[in-house]
Amino acid sequence: MANDQTGYARVETSCFRMSAWGCAVIGALAAAACLWTDSCTLIVEAFLYIVDTAVAIVSVVIVRRLESPPDEHFPFGYHKLEPAVVNASATLLIAGSVIAVLLAVQDIRHPDNIKAYPIALGFAAAATIISAALWLRIRAAQAAAGSPLLKTEALTWGIATIESVGVLAGFAVAWVLEHQSDSGLQRLAPYVDPVMAMILSIAILKEPLKTYWESYSDLLDANFRSDIAKQVREKVAIVLAQRHPRVQVLALRFRRAGRKLFVHVELALPNEFTVVEIHSLQSEIEAAIRAARPETLLVTFGH
User: Which of 47, 63, 180, 266 could form a disulfide with 250 if both were Cys (CB 3.0 to 4.6 A apart)?
Assistant: First the structure.
């Protein structure tokens, strides 16, 4: 099992390094292209990829630390680092999206066509190729390793590929409109870029908002996953009903830390229970919980 975890960590680290390089390259291209073309869509793209680069770099460090044993500074382990970084990333993406929408509204009120469409088209084409290549590579790695982190990363690059195709199509439409002989169609061209930037910014808001709420809940030790509580309660109830019907559950408490789960079980035990019987009961309950929720890191008991 330890060898499997080590192998998964290596695959995750390799993929996050590729993601960091991919984000850095696309972000640099987007930054250069937006300065050259004065495109607000490319400003959004540059910001998103700069954030993704930072997250990928930090993720490489986190992957190495997640399985480290607890120490005096982190007595419950390092698993809270994961939701902390995810929350910071989601916050930046939400803020960036809101700012991008405001910039797009300003450009719509004061329309100005972007410069050098071939450069914008070239960036969008390059971003599509890089995103598609990384999506296919990370998706294959995720299928082999079964990693939740890589599943999210593959989904991110899949979305990035679709977004890049959309940006490429948008710039192509604007470029075609600009070269129309009809002056009415030409006047539409300056609006394509800010409208595209607004649509892109609003479209990506759903996932960061969802991620922000989930990671914030983790950081607060809040449990809004009723499915987890229901599943654990059912497993504990089955163990008690089959083997120890006189034992009652006083409370079940849950604490999530990234991908890991901590469970605390409070039991009301008969006075005649021996230490051996208590230990046997706790072992049975712990085995049932771990079978239902394999991500469980620690099960503690009180009585």
Answer: 266
Compute the distance between CA of residue 240 and CA of residue 237 in angstroms, rounded to an integer: 5
* 296-302/260-268 β-pairing: parallel
1 residue type, one letter: M
Contact predicate 120/213, CB 8 Å:
no
Assigned token pair, 294: 């394999």
With tokens 């919980």, the residue in question is 289
- Reported as a single tens digit per residue, the pLDDT across 199-256 is 877 877 787 888 788 888 777 777 666 677 788 888 888 888 887 888 888 888 887 7
Whether the Cβ atoms of residue 34 and residue 127 lie closer than 8 Å to each other: no
pTM over 0.70: no
Q: Which residues contact 54 (CB under 8 A, 6 or more apart)?
A: 89
For the chain, where do the domains classified as CATH 3.30.70.1350 start and end?
Answer: 226-302
pLDDT at 131: 92
**Would you tell me how many other CB atoms lie within 10 Å of the CB of residue 291?**
10
pLDDT of residue 29: 92
Pick from 50, 34, 53: which is nearest to 124 by CA?
34
2-219: CATH, from 1.20.1510.10, 3.40.50.1100, 3.40.50.2300, 3.30.1490.20: 1.20.1510.10
Backbone angles phi, psi at 274, to 5 degrees: -85, 170
Beta carbons of 152 and 135 less than 8 angstroms apart? no
Distance CA 237, CA 243 (A): 10
Sheet order of strands, 296-302 included:
248-257, 260-268, 296-302
Q: Supply the pLDDT for residue 26.
A: 92
User: Comparing C-alpha atoms, which of 158, 170, 155 is closest to residue 200?
Assistant: 170
Determine the CATH number of domain 226-302. 3.30.70.1350
Written as six digits, the tokens of 150 are: 């890589």
Quick check: helix, strand or coil at residue 261? strand
